[in-house]
Design a protein that fits this description.
four-stranded mixed beta sheet; about 25% strand; seven-stranded mixed beta sheet; 8 helices
């Protein structure tokens, strides 16, 4: 029974979730469940994260068409990228049933990446009131309370852009896709969601120097961040920032530095 002093939210106040079919050069590649905003950014960020394209210049066209359950993204990519994708698909198909497919799947989930050039992490004062500063950027989250956000910050810690999605991976894909379309990329990214290993891979692959998380990272996420020289920083709700970094901190009062394993 609903209490007299409360009300049920209207349907239009709940977070949107739709099926997005991604076609590459006329061939279906994947169907993702996502929030239907910034789908052009999502297409570029998703294909970049999958290693199908190397940048925005590899995408020739994106057509977005509504469908019964969501949207269809018809993406046209460079022929050289399509050839690499087809070769990868043939390699995975040929391994089926021989005991190698499990190895291929693990290698695909945790691919080897090029380590970043070590950078000194941002100063603690650039992270002051970060949670409060992020809140106004989460416009849809304020209505539904069920959206993750990924944000781009400049060198002084000012927020420049935000992308939201029901999926934390999708939110980061959208932000990375948007950044790939800009003439100048931000090297500091922030996420409001749980920080798992896959988000570390996306940040390293993009070339970010720093990844700030409002939630605690996993052990594997920390190990991968340190392996690839990504400055991973956890900003708790009340305590001082926690730096998981090879480079050390900026020696400001209140910072906590977690040494490499």
């Amino acid at each position: 029974m609903v209490p007299l002093n409360s009300r049920l939210p209207r349907l239009d106040e709940l977070v949107e979730e739709v099926a997005v079919s991604i076609n590459i050069n006329g061939i279906n590649h994947a169907v993702m469940m996502t929030t239907p905003d910034d789908l052009d950014d999502f297409a570029i960020g998703f294909l970049f994260g999958e290693g199908i394209i190397q940048g925005n210049h590899d995408v020739h066209d994106i057509q977005i068409t509504p469908s019964e359950y969501g949207f269809v993204l018809d993406v046209t990519i460079a022929n050289r990228c399509l050839a690499v994708l087809n070769q990868r698909k043939r390699r995975l198909t040929g391994a089926t049933g021989c005991g190698i497919c499990g190895v291929e799947a693990i290698e695909h989930a945790l691919p080897a990446l090029t380590p970043l050039s070590p950078q000194r992490p941002p100063k603690a004062d650039s992270l002051l009131n970060l949670r409060e500063r992020i809140a106004p950027w989460q416009r849809k989250a304020r209505l539904s309370g069920a959206l993750h956000a990924a944000l781009a910050l400049d060198e002084s810690g000012e927020i420049l852009a935000c992308r939201e999605d029901i999926g934390r991976h999708n939110a980061l894909d959208k932000l990375i896709g948007m950044q790939l379309r800009q003439p100048r990329r931000c090297t500091t990214l922030a996420i409001t969601s749980r920080c798992g290993s896959e988000l570390i891979h996306k940040a390293v692959q993009f070339g970010a120097a720093h990844l700030i998380s409002l939630a605690s990272p996993s052990q594997l996420a920390v190990r991968l961040a340190q392996k690839y020289h990504l400055n991973l920083i956890h900003v708790p709700r009340f305590d001082a920032p926690v730096y998981y970094s090879h480079a050390g901190t900026s020696d400001q009062i209140g910072e906590r530095n977690v040494q490499p394993y």
